[in-house]
Amino acid sequence: MSRGLRFLTRLVGSNLNRLKDGRCLFTSKPTLLFKGLQCLGQCHDEHLESWNHPVTAKRSRHLGVKGFRNWGIRIWDFGFRNSNSAIRNLSLTFIFGLFLIPTTNSSAQRLEVTDVNAKSPNEPGFDLRLALGGTVNSDMTVSTREGRSYPQPNINPLVGNCNFNGTVSYESVAFNPGFRFDFAPGYRLNEWIGFEFETGCIYNTVDAYTISGNGTFTGTGGNPTLNGTTTADAQGYLLQVPLMVNVEFSYPLEGGWRPFIGAGGGGMFQKMTIGTLTGDIQVQGDFNQSNFLGAWEAFLGFGYQVAPGFDVSLAYRLNGVLAPDFAGYTMQNFFTQAAEFGMNWRF
Q1: Which class for 45: exposed (0-12), middle (13-18), buried (19 or more C-beta within 10 A)?
Q2: Which domains does the chain have, with CATH numbers?
């Protein structure tokens, strides 16, 4: 028997001999005390509910560990429920004795009370990922218009509200950096493979509109003549809502680190608006179109387990939309890149 355990036994024995009025309080619950001493991770909520005291919970919070806190509430409560000094001493004996018992490999597992209700990353189960990050988009460049490739004669610019007499050979919309938010419930098969359904939003404002060709604008301010390429500052936005099913492959390392890689597919809702143009072309545009088309996603990154059942992660994500079409304007394949900070809960 260890030195600490012998000391605890002597203290318990001496205090039990001194119990008078409070004797029935302990002897009626012998299995509660000694079973609790053997396996702190178990919670007896029926006893806690009947014996809990608002003062005792406050007094026991300093222990800081869930299992110690639960048992601290019960043990301290004995002292508050009965003014007998022997009971108070015995209460302190049990609390102090918990820290005197040396732990072996087997007992250390019993004392790991913080992990009792946490979901191990190695176990199958549901999880939820929330992420927020920044995004950059490729340009939205027109590939064909009404099924015909550029150059095309005597067509109006896609921004609308103006006419063009001549030939248009190129149109493109550029975007400012934006943000991305992900909401992704999932299911982890094991420590290496997991699935998720991902949605959220990706938002970028329009930066500029570029047009190339030869001809003359009507209904616009600025320079009415186009001879080559011109770029105008533009107002508007691009909203994207992904609906993806992803698979993730990860490899847990020592210390809580977990590199991962994955891919997925599904659809992407897109809504693009282009309003006021300023610069060489000055016009109040009225482009406002949306679509829903097939899309894919690839990602990689690494995670870190901050606490049992809770991870944080950094990830790079690449989304692609295949030939997005806006009311007859078919664009080249469109890409969005993102760097994200994520949080993952396991249930």
Answers
A1: exposed
A2: 3-115 (no CATH), 125-346 (2.40.160.20)
